[in-house]
Amino acid sequence: MGDLFGTIVEGARGIGISSSVLVAQIINFVILFGLLLLVAYKPLTKMFDERSRKIKEGMEQTELVKKQAERAGEEVKKQLEAASKEGQEVIARAMKTGEEIRREAQEQAKQDAEVLIARARTEIQRERDDAIDELRRGFADVTIMAAEKVVDRSLDKEAHRKLIDKVLEESKTLKKG
Length: 177
Known about the structure:
Layout: H1 2-14, H2 19-151, H3 157-176
Helix pairs in contact: 2-3
């Protein structure tokens, strides 16, 4: 090994490097390296660590925002589905209400028609009864006139009318019974 060192020193002298300068430069390099290690290495590694931490935080923040955006999207989707469902329910209620109103209107129209028919029947019955009464009075007058002509004398109109009304009333009672 001594031989190897000697050969290196001889080779270095041959290219113009003196061993004392070489040793001084190596010592200077070690001192400079030590100073740089103390002064620059720690701040540089601290700066690199800080930058790495900020990048990591930024990535975590980005991931958090991404998850929040996904949750917000899901929430919006749920709200849209709920709004759609509510809209469908409102439409269904409106249709049901419309159907109920239509049915009630039909029911009311049917009731109104039945009331009108009942009134018409009552009016027809009253007019029929009035016509029958008028016909009886006219028949009584004609009968009295015919009897006067047959008997050739005047009967008491009022007594005869009462007698005819009584007979007609009895016949009316017999027809109904």
